[in-house]
Records
---
Amino acid sequence: MEKITLHDKSFRICIPNEQIEESIRKVAEQINADYKDVECPLFLAVLNGSFMFAASLLKHINFECEISFVRLSSYCGTSSTGEVKQILGFNKSLEGRSVIVVEDIVDSGETMVEMNKTLLSANVKDARICTLLFKPDAYKKDLKIDYVAMNIPNDFIVGFGLDYDELGRQYKDIYVLDE
Ligand code: IMP
Ligand code: MG
């Protein structure tokens, strides 16, 4: 589908699935190389947005690992609210673990800064961030984003897990607001 309508807005295709999957394969290769000697890392995927990315990414991971899902959100409509809610869903101790956070998109960076604080206070051994999408022009923080599958302009996008007020997550391609 070239165009989709979600609520009151229309979107046009901007990143086809093949390109998304190829960028995920490349980022997985970097992670495979960096973690080959690390004891059972834990992937912590941030719901809801990262469910599709986590599924694609983990299929390429070739070392012993665990995956778990957490929930946390700061977004309402098409612009960041600037508020980050608490992180829910840690069901086991993170102490001493090497954690790789799996995120759909890093925008202002608020969410990842909050996540990083929470992980450090849970006494993880090491925490890194892996995001499908990064908006360099919107990023306002100093925290290092370790793995980026794709850099994108500061536009609002949906699909491949990302939503516009909860719609559009199921599409295999990524769409941008058609203005
Ligand atoms: P941040 O805290 O400003 O970095 O925002 C990160 C969160 O905002 C992501 O996990 C997404 O859920 C959401 N988000 C940021 N940009 C977009 C977008 O373009 N489309 C859909 N959701 C977005
Ligand atoms: Mg998210």
---
Amino acid sequence: MAVTLHTLAEMKQRQEKFSCLTAYDATFAHTVSSSGVDVILVGDSLGMVLQGQSSTVPVSLADMVYHTRGVAAGNQGALLMVDMPFMSYSTLPQALESAATLMRAGAQMVKLEGDEWMADSIAALSERGVPTCAHLGLTPQFVHKLGGYKVQGRDEAAAEKMLQSACALDQAGADVILLECVPSSLAQKITAAVRAPVIGIGAGPDTDGQVLVLHDMLGITPGRRPRFVKDFLQEGGSIAGAIAAYVAAVKAGHFPAPEHGFKG
Ligand code: KIV
């Protein structure tokens, strides 16, 4: 049966963990969704993973449309979330136009990086039938403002601000909240405080769901492996086996383990 927003809300209620992985083409979308993953993310990480860029900033709306079409064609019932790329939602009219373009390409939810400044856009999208995910914490489109890919919300003031932003975006109508690279204790607090299901990456074991970049969890991303990534290909033996092992580990609460998280 197809995964919907209601499925995720019910899973949060039942305290049942859900899994999310990136996919950027029809073949991987087919494998990922057939292996039990609940949510597929067409992430703008494709700028780094597929295009070899040093950040997600150069990714265009046309790139996202191209990859969303492929993923939608291969998807076997996972909820299909798509990133709004850098500066494609900086004003309300732009956010509505970009979201419409992605929804027409096959997105079932759009993801926006930022904090309280996105509340009006999230409310307007929600009122017009566009499900949204608000991405907080380490927001890669802000890498040049953040001064690198660093854990966010470590000091008390930053943690309090992130909690407030998550609550404001939850109230504005965000259907999902995604937390990237935040201390596990802060992610636990935010997950308990908001109505929306929370997906974590480098955010510890207490979020409602987990996401990883597919190429990272297959261990094929060049360079140093981030702390929050586990290579599932080693234990899974094949691509489908690795994905099934990831889904099982998330559902059982075995991934992420304490060593994959960050302290405040
Ligand atoms: O673009 C992406 O793949 C993401 C994940 C890292 C959450 O935003």
